[in-house]
Amino acid sequence: MRIVIVGAGAVGTYLAARLSSEGQDVVVIESDERHAARLQERVDALVIVGNGASPTSLEEAGIRKADLLIAVSNSDGANALACHTARTMGVRRTVARIEDEELRSGLPGLGVDVVIDPGEMAAREIIGLIGHSGISDLVEFARGELVLVGGIVRKHSPMVGATLMDLRAESTWEWVVAAVVRHGETIVAKGDTVIHEHDHVLVMTTAANLDAATEFMGMTQQPVRRAVVVGATRLAELTADHLLDEGIDVVMIDQDNDRCRSLAEKHDRVLVLSADPTDPSVLQELGLNGKDAVIGLTGWDHINAMACMVGKALGAATTVARFNRISYVGLLGGTGIDAAVSARLAAANAILRFVRRGRIHSVATFKDTDAEAIEIEVAASSRAVGKLLSELNFKSGAVVGGIHREGDVFVPHGGTEIMARDRLILFALPSAIHDVEQLFTD
Question: What is the pTM of this model?
């Protein structure tokens, strides 16, 4: 598949690296020569210096043979125009990153098939994480009835030191550990996998068993009553609005007096403080306790991390930090940061579904592993139909964690028979994704 990406910023670079590593024919158009040169050194893709909305640049990128154009530059207008120009030149599908709500209302007829707003996606992810303190990942499938929940295994978890086979034998509720991330390495879980303290585990279960899953990892749940949002960014404002809608009190902290004045004028239900969020005395004066959350959403990774670590040390129940550099995330286990969010990954999750085949209904990526969780519909012609899950010749890089069948959802076992039109929730390493798609869609 030929994919043309406009923009080599954080989102464009991430997508280009991921898609090219899977063997996709990727072409990137970037107007900044330095960004283009940097990307060309890192990614096995054709990088063109030019204007992504220009017919000349699009022609050079081979847009007439492309299956998809992804416009993710920092300019909403440029992204919309790139999609419009590409559509007139024959591209099949277009995706645009557009944050301006007014611009979205004028998009019909411009050739934009799908609009993504990374900030809004990240804000909604934060709300889900805050609602279940201590977890690092929460991804919904099958209209929210199946969940993939991630977290760092605590010392007192019943999982520590046990094999998954033994844990399943003793369990009274249904679950599957899809993967274990240990020291930066992703292990697709098997029956003889032993869980260690500080492992990052990804557990698939039904939504009704979400609390049981968090307790399984050694977490204790307390409802968050107040959230301290660090930063005055657009993501911080979106998150504050969602928190208020959930009935959670909000405090916002930023060092810029003008930004704080603007925040106070726009958000009359928010307590706004102009102060250094990394100064322990600032958070200490708020009297943080087990019903508080600290959320670092500035544009600076180190400030977000420090604010969360200080908040955790002062008694906050849960902490969430925004990161631009995903490489930081795998280093944070046990440091006082419970979860990390990334607008880049939020955008990638939305876009990857359009890169996959037509029977892929959703895709989720994660912060410290390059594996994906995929919701895929089993074709009637698939050679997997009628076979037991244990009979399928999976590579070691994939596991089925959940099934949505005719309105019912459940966690499968080796004796589960695969049926046509089942929606399977699969966790797969990049090396296994192609084979998995072929097995269930051909």
Answer: 0.78
